[in-house]
Design brief:
The chain is mainly alpha-helical.
Length: 71
Amino acid sequence: MNWERLRGSWKQVKGHARQQWGKLTDDDLEAIAGEREKLTGRLQERYGYAKDRAEQEVDSWVTTVQASPER
């Protein structure tokens, strides 16, 4: 799944993001609005990840969402 498709279905997949990263609030997820850079930034803020680690987390999550039978 490319990011554009994920961004287009953000309302459906943000629940997956909430499961993956419990420290993200509903307000965070609304503010992210499917923007990869915003998600990476919020992970850095909430979890103290370095930029590379946050990007790896997002890449791994996208793969998981893509493989999800609910998608």
